[in-house]
Every structure is written in C-alpha cells, then in structure tokens.
Design a protein that fits this description.
It is built from 11 helices and 18 strands. The chain is of the alpha/beta class. It folds into 2 domains: 196 residues, 3-Layer(aba) Sandwich (Rossmann fold); 140 residues, Rossmann fold (3-Layer(aba) Sandwich), CATH 3.40.50. It has an 8-stranded mixed sheet. Strands 15-16-17-18 form a 4-stranded parallel sheet, with helices on both faces. Strands 2-3 form a two-stranded antiparallel sheet. Helix 3 crosses helix 8. The termini are far apart. 44% of the residues are buried.
C-alpha cells in the first residue's frame, strides 16, 4: 500500500452539520468540522486528513462571496495537499461547484464537493457514505472539480440537484455521469490525471445579474428598468427551444446598446437550440446569446464570473461559448438538429 494522500477537508455547514431546533422544530446549523471525524473515525485510514471550518451556514444563504472564499482557501493551500473535500449544503451545491469550475482552471488535483440529505447526527444519515466516498475519490488519480453524492460522481459544472428527498439527490445535466460508486468506483469518461502544471486561479463573481422566466404578458418595461438600475447581465428562460416573444426584442436590443449580455435558455428539459423558429432567430439577431446545453447553475455562475473578469462585451459571446470546464458542448447540440436545418444553425452562429 502506497503512502497516504494528504487531504484538506473544508467544512462550510449545510444539512450534514444541522441539528433540529427544539423550539421551532426546523433544522438549523449547529455542528462544526469536528463532527465529521466523529461521524466516522476510520476516515483516517483513507488519507492524512486535516480539517478547516471555513463557514457554518445553510447553503441557501450562501452568496458568491462565499464561493470566492472556497476558491481562496484552495489556492492558499494548493501546494500543501494532494486533494480537497468541501462539505456544504445541497441546495446550492451545484452553483458552487460550477462557480469553482470556472475560477480554478487547469487543476492538477481533485476538488470534491459533498454533503448530505439527512443530518449526520441522525441514525439514518447518508452523510457517512457521501463523506467516505468523497475522500476516496479525492485520493485517486483524477483532477478537476466534482460532486460526489449518493452513487454518482459528477463533473462540477454539469451537476444539478434533482430531488429534495432522494438520497441520490443529484444528477448530471444534459450528459452522462462522470463515474459511479457501487462496491467499487468506476469512471465512465476519460479523466484528467494528476499533474504538476500550475493551475490558473481567476477568482471573483459579479452578483449583479438577474434570472427571469418568460411568462405570457410580462411587462418588458421591467427589464428596461433593471438594465437602467445596475443589472450587468440577464439569464432569460424563453419558451420551447429558447424562443423569445417579439414584444421583447426592443428591450433585448436595448440591452445590447447598454452592453448588458442576455443569456437565453429554455424552460423545457434539454438544450437551447435557437433559430429553429422565427422568434428565436430574431432574438439572436437582437444580440441574445444562447446557452445551448448548459445548466442553469453553470450558465448563471459563468455569467457572474465573466463579468468580474471584465470580458469585453464584443468578446462575450465567443468566450461564453468556449468550453472551459466541460460545461458546454455546441457540437453535440447541433447533432440533434434535423439535417435540413443545418443552414439555420450555421447562420445563428454568426449572429
């Protein structure tokens, strides 16, 4: 047996650390990082583990500034450890894992996020398996940001919370799971091995964005008001394949005049394929950027991240469609389009 890896376990709170409030009956944050060692003392057999309590909050209350703290602690300790496990709440874990995927590029080590659906203090908790499996994956020959939860290993920028009650609460959005955990651990995709090349830490997120769902009759003046009052980016959930009503086109053009990027996605399951219908094509012509097969968590955190990196508006679409961490696959989306529509697809890429 080789020498044990050195892992930093970062505790951020969440259900795994919660205790039932005797007065209200609701779960609130109570325990710290030490509880994780009490949960399963034998984790010391998996790795040399050191713990750090970064914060102790319900993930619903997490802000982009908290993601920045996660990135900062990995950057500060990158040379000291062979891997990192971040334990946090499940509600916004997919947002955090997506954000970290953009802010920490070319990682030569694994950064694993995990948590629990049931508090660790409960006898039927899933925290034990999730924590142990996250530590196991963190010691393997793999690099990048991942979520390990239930029986799945998911790329951080593709993960999505699918259920509030299932112990297999997360799934991979518009892709297959990166790996699976049963009696053993199996990777389903080619993975980046550990390496000694320097990582690129580009921390920072601009939270001045909004996410809106299009409903029939929504007053477009709301959008104009938001643009005039400090909104720097918009995620817009259109109809069907990403179609946007004609009445919205003037305000989409107004956003372009004000250098406010508008990312268009669909309210349906699957990918955004704008240009199939006239409303989508006209929206592209008005300057809207389609999200293709990205998840809501990934597109919104990428938008926040790019705004903080001061990407010029003229370059925004090009960089947004760049595959940075596995979050977008334009070619795979195009594959599903009928042959006779290929000309429209090529046209929309010029918009």
């Amino acid at each position: 047996m080789g020498e044990l890896k050195k892992i930093l376990m970062v505790s951020c709170g969440g259900t795994i650390s919660m205790h039932q409030n005797e007065t209200t009956g609701a779960l609130d944050v109570a325990h710290g990082a030490d509880q994780l060692f009490r949960l399963e003392p034998r984790i010391v057999e998996l790795a040399h583990i050191e713990s750090h309590e970064l914060m102790n909050v319900d993930s619903s209350n997490m802000m982009p500034a908290d993601w920045e703290k996660m990135v900062a602690i990995v950057e500060k300790n990158y040379r000291k450890y062979d891997g990192f496990v971040i334990v946090m709440g499940t509600n916004t874990m997919a947002y955090a894992s997506s954000a970290l995927s953009f802010a920490m590029q070319n990682l030569g080590k694994p950064v694993i996020l995990t948590g629990a659906q049931i508090p660790a203090e409960a006898i039927n908790t899933d925290a034990h398996n999730n924590l142990v499996n996250a530590l196991r994956v963190a010691t393997m020959d793999i690099a990048g940001v991942f979520i390990v939860f239930g029986s799945k290993i998911m790329l951080g920028c593709r993960a999505k919370k699918m259920s509030e009650a299932d112990l297999d609460a997360f799934g991979t959005f518009n892709d297959s799971d990166f790996g699976e955990i049963s009696i053993g651990i199996k990777f389903n995709k080619p993975n980046t091995s550990r390496h000694g090349n320097p990582p690129a830490f580009r921390n920072g997120f601009d939270a001045n964005i909004i996410s809106l769902t299009c409903v029939p009759g929504l007053d477009v003046d709301y959008l104009r008001f938001l643009i005039d009052n400090g909104t720097r980016g918009i995620v817009f959930r259109g109809f069907g394949s990403g179609d946007i009503p004609q009445s919205y086109l003037p305000v989409m053009e107004y956003a372009r005049e004000k250098y406010v990027p508008v990312i268009a996605t669909t309210q349906c399951r699957g990918s955004t394929i704008m240009g199939l219908n006239d409303p989508g094509l006209k929206a592209l012509q008005a300057g809207v950027i389609q999200a293709f097969d990205m998840s809501m968590e990934s597109m919104s955190t990428k938008l926040m991240w790019m705004l903080r990196q001061d990407v010029k508006y003229e370059k925004f679409k090009e960089m947004f469609h760049q595959n940075i961490a596995g979050e977008i696959n334009i070619k795979r989306t195009k594959f599903f389009i009928n042959k006779e529509l290929e000309k429209i697809v090529d046209y929309q890429e010029l918009m």
